[in-house]
Amino acid sequence: MTVTAEEFIRRFLLHVLPEGFQRIRHYGFLANRYRQQKLARCRELLKMPPLEPKSKETKKDYRDYYEQLTGTSLKICPICHQGHMAVIETFEGVTSRRPINDTS
What we know:
Layout: H1 5-13, H2 35-45, H3 62-70
């Protein structure tokens, strides 16, 4: 099939994702179906020890990690050093995306 340059570019750009999007595809042993079995087989062939199951301990909050690293607690008020800080309100971020013009 022969197409004009403009038509080729138009068709090519139909495959380009909008800004902020990312295409992710996995093939072979990383494909969704049977991924665990295939990765286990890969580890077996590479003579790696099997993965240990994840422990069920409670997940730490980022404030706990910060306190562990710096010795300063984010849960205590930095001004009066008494009481606990609490989230009262959160604000949604403002997006400045341009509207997508559909050329099809």
